[in-house]
Design a protein that fits this description.
The chain has 389 residues and is of the alpha+beta class. The chain has 10 helices and 10 strands.
């Protein structure tokens, strides 16, 4: 019997995917999360487990060797991995961030060359937009790409590049026409093996310590001209269109971190006794838990609704409110994650503040979700602009 109203429940396939990712995360990723954070080391065990289960880049279409999963499936994978280890969730998230520019704008040749190695797990793909002087104002970038015969020569510095040094491939935005402002920016695929590519020292971060963040340097880096993504001058448009899709993955990450913190705190308050009874019996703490769960669920519904729009837009359908929805879910979910993880620390009291328990790590990891892929101040500007158009 068919209904005309939209189904707000996940499909059986999506529910089955969540169960399998949650089981894998519990068995193969969670046991290493504290060590990955403490030693600031790349979560190789998580990477290998995700690749083995074909969960490292589920969004890549089948024609390029990928699983061909939809945007909601990608969100569920990231959410469930982030629930136990935010650093590890950046493997599927950044593989998507690096490759969406190709899916949106690249020639068939570029897609066929660079997507299959990511689909197979042989290579990871990072995204290089930000620079030391071009953060929120990304269009102010200085990295140059100069055409020279059938090559481009790149010079410049990119900063805050997630998984830099571990990823084989990089989507790099560079200025090809300095007189044209944002319309003078082009996008390229750079291989870390290309001559003239080098990496800075590891940044020492508050959270997501298992995901390496470094500067990337281009010193007369010569790449074939056919590695341009789309036409010259369309790079900034591609960058913004990409973020419409990938901000949703940051919302998913925030969601997972928040859910992990709530789940841990909920278990703790049922066990911890003070004044002769479990602290879960105190109404003040019950209300905290209720608020945490309510906000997470609101963030989840918003994120899944945005993912559905992302999927439609990737298939060429008009999703007019995608920009608003993706900014809204990223901004809301990350604010919720910061609030929920802070409350989880509070619920554990002194235990929440020590690294023997995972909630202090979750609180540190949550902070970055309010900052990267567009600060939440920028998200509010984006939403306001959509509203006032």
């Amino acid at each position: 019997m068919s209904h005309d109203f939209p189904a707000f429940a996940l499909s059986d396939e999506h529910e089955a995917l969540r169960e399998s990712v949650r089981a894998l995360a519990a068995e193969k990723i969670a046991p290493h999360a504290a060590k990955v954070d403490g030693a600031a080391e790349f979560p190789q065990e998580a990477h290998d487990a995700l690749v083995k289960a074909d969960l490292h880049a589920v969004h890549i279409p089948e024609e390029y060797g990928g699983a061909g999963a939809d945007a909601l499936a990608a969100v569920i994978v990231i959410e469930e991995v982030a629930r136990v280890c935010a650093s590890s969730s950046l493997i599927p998230a950044v593989n998507k961030l690096g490759t969406v520019p190709l899916l949106l704008s690249a020639s068939e040749e570029v897609k066929r060359q660079f997507l299959p190695p990511v689909a197979s797990g042989a290579a990871m793909f990072s995204y290089a937009l930000s620079e030391p002087e071009a953060g929120s104002d990304a269009a102010a970038m200085k990295t140059r790409a100069v055409r020279d015969g059938d090559s481009y020569v790149l010079n410049g510095t990119k900063r805050w590049i997630t998984n830099a040094g571990v990823s084989q491939y990089y989507t790099v935005m560079a200025v090809t026409d300095p007189s044209a402002g944002a319309n003078g920016i082009s996008a390229f695929v750079v291989d870390k093996a290309d001559e003239g590519v080098s990496f800075g020292a590891l940044e020492h971060k508050l959270g997501i310590k298992g995901s390496p963040t470094r500067e990337v340097y281009f010193d007369n880096c010569r790449i074939p001209a056919d590695r341009i993504i789309g036409a010259e001058g369309t790079g900034f448009k591609t960058a913004l269109a990409t973020l419409d899709h990938t901000r949703i993955t940051i919302a998913a990450q925030a969601l997972g971190i928040a859910q992990g913190a709530l789940d841990y705190a909920r278990g703790y308050v049922k066990e911890r006794k003070q004044f002769g009874k479990a602290i879960a019996e105190f109404q003040g703490l019950q209300f905290m838990l209720a608020d945490m769960a309510m906000k997470i669920e609101a963030a989840r519904q918003l994120t899944y609704a945005a993912a559905a729009r992302s999927e439609r837009a990737m298939h060429g359908e008009r999703a007019a409110d995608l920009t608003f929805m993706s900014s809204a879910c990223k901004c809301f979910a990350s604010d919720v994650a910061m609030e929920v993880t802070t409350d989880a620390v509070q619920l554990l009291g002194g235990y929440g503040y020590v690294s023997d328990y995972p909630v202090e790590r979750m609180m540190r990891d949550a902070k970055i979700t309010q900052i990267y892929e567009g600060t939440n101040q920028i998200q509010r500007m984006v939403m306001a602009r959509q509203l006032l158009r």
